[in-house]
Amino acid sequence: DVVMTQSPLSLPVTLGQPASISCRSSQGLVYSDGNTYLNWFQQRPGQSPRRLIYKVSNRDSGVPDRFSGSGSGTDFTLKISRVEAEDVGIYYCMQGTHWPFTFGPGTKVDL
Amino acid sequence: QVQLVESGGGLVKPGGSLRLSCAASGFTFSDHYMTWIRQAPGRGLEWISYIGPSGTGTVYADSVKGRFTVSRDNAKNSLYLQMDSLRAEDTAVYYCTRNPRLADYWGQGTLVCVSS
Fold it and tell me: What sign for the dihedral angle of Cα A79, A85, A90, A92?
């Protein structure tokens, strides 16, 4: 199975300041169709996960533009340009290239 | 708008069975792969299974293979997960999601608790 690792696992943040989460995969994530199925999810306390970013860098509709994704190969990054209070939660990366698809362990973002 | 609503969770004894349902709306259900993902209490996320648009092409994680069966009824816009031979480690919130590689929409989840 492809192992997804995230760092840090806990990220204290300051309102208005930037934040960054790293995600690494144990194998490359380029699928045979040429796409890289690396997605990012946010899970707020008591809620189900919500997708923020798909295929590395595509922001979902309704996701604030302070969120951005980047990376290639086995190294990927989620950045928040200016943290807001509603950004508190757990962030997961997920690979959808190799079955079984796998998630990272999550990064807890807290004020 | 896309909505996925899970139901059928509850408390069951080890070795027992449970059938989860997911009612889909707001999109053409029969056009999409559908999936089940679970999250054990205080734990991360684990893929369980997915099924092709016509009901063929089912895939399972090793942890549930031979015990769980995914199915769908496109006429009812519904996805199902039959869970047999349940174990304590199957205790989790079970989510229905759309599009395995992209997981673009999630339901609110239904809690399954396996305990004697």
Answer: negative
Q: Is A74 exposed, middle or buried (0-12, 13-18, 19+ CB in 10 A)?
A: middle
Task: Tell me the Ramachandran region of residue A32: left when phi exceeds 0, alpha when psi lies from -120 to 50, beta otherwise.
Answer: alpha
A23 strand-pairing partners: A6, A76
Taking contacts as CB-CB distances below 8 angstroms, the residues of chain B near A57 are none
On whether any CB of chain B is under 8 Å from the CB of A98, the answer is: no
Digitized pLDDT (tens) for each residue of chain B, 116 residues in all: 999 999 999 999 999 999 999 999 999 999 999 999 999 988 889 999 999 999 989 999 999 999 999 999 999 999 999 999 999 999 999 999 999 999 999 999 999 999 99
Q: What's the number of CA atoms in the CB half-sphere (13 Å) around residue B17?
A: 7
User: Which residues are within 8 A (CB) of A46 and not within 5 positions of it... i.e. 6 or more apart?
Assistant: none
B105 to chain A, closest Cα gap in Å: 7
B60 CA to chain A: closest CA distance, Å?
Answer: 8
Q: Which of B102, B105, B110, B111 to mutate to test the interface with A (most CBs of A within 10 A)?
A: B102
Nearest chain A residue to B39 by CA distance is A48
Residue A58: other Cβ atoms inside 10 A: 13
- Cα A11 → chain centroid: 13
B47 has a chain A CB within 8 A of its CB: yes
Q: Is B29 helix (H, G, I), strand (E, B) or coil?
A: helix
